[in-house]
Design goal:
Blueprint (H helix, E strand, L loop, with lengths): L1 H10 L4 H19 L1 H6 L1 H23 L6 H20 L5 H28 L5 H20 L5 H45 L1
Helix pairs in contact: 1-8, 2-4, 2-8, 4-5, 5-6, 6-7, 6-8, 7-8
């Protein structure tokens, strides 16, 4: 029994990965809100690096915990998608606003759906606050559809839409990191109780 608890504890040992991703997302969104014109000028390179880092960290987390993660393939696919999109945008900075908006739109759509899926998983696990995750996922999905359906939107509108989407994603990642941290704490307490009972 102790071994089982220890193995599950390993699953959430990298909770800080989501915290880092969330902080990066929020910092990036604040920067875009404060400097929309400059943001749009360097939007492609900025998002390329940000999405690439997000994907690499996600892949790192999944590969380290795939044996204990439900639907780990979905999360791995999301990380790989982030890396691919980041590399494409990084290598082709001349992508037009139309293509860039579509790229980001489909990326946000995948992230929105993944967030909604995660919300229902946490609801099933009895975690509090799953409703907020669901709400953020729905909002992200809505913004994604807005970018896909109307890719010829103005530069300022595109910047603010993406900035707000990244802000929501940042909060989602940070919230998930604290959920994982709390789960780890509870598992550690459970393991200690089991060990104490076994010693009696």
């Amino acid at each position: 029994m102790t071994n089982i608890v220890s193995r599950v504890s390993y699953t959430v040992k990298n909770w800080w990965v989501f915290l880092i991703i969330g902080i990066l997302m929020i910092v990036g969104s604040i920067w875009m809100f404060k400097t929309p014109i400059e943001s749009f000028a360097g939007l492609s390179a900025f998002f390329s690096i940000l999405i690439l880092l997000s994907g690499m960290l996600s892949i790192f987390y999944v590969l380290g915990n795939k044996s204990d993660l439900d639907n780990w393939g979905l999360y791995l696919g999301g990380g790989i998608l982030d890396v691919v999109v980041g590399l494409i945008l990084l290598n082709y900075p001349e992508i037009t606003m139309l293509l860039f908006s579509l790229f980001i739109g489909f990326w946000l759509l995948f992230r929105g759906i993944s967030t909604i899926s995660a919300a229902f998983k946490y609801k099933k696990d009895g975690e509090e606050g799953w409703g907020w995750i669901l709400l953020f996922g729905i909002l992200i999905t809505i913004f994604a559809f807005m970018s896909i359906i109307n890719p010829l939107i103005g530069a300022a509108y595109l910047v603010f839409t993406l900035a707000f989407s990244f802000l929501l994603l940042g909060f989602v990642y940070i919230y998930l990191s604290f959920i994982l941290k709390n789960v780890k704490s509870r598992l550690v307490e459970t393991r200690e109780e089991i060990e104490e009972r076994l010693e009696l």
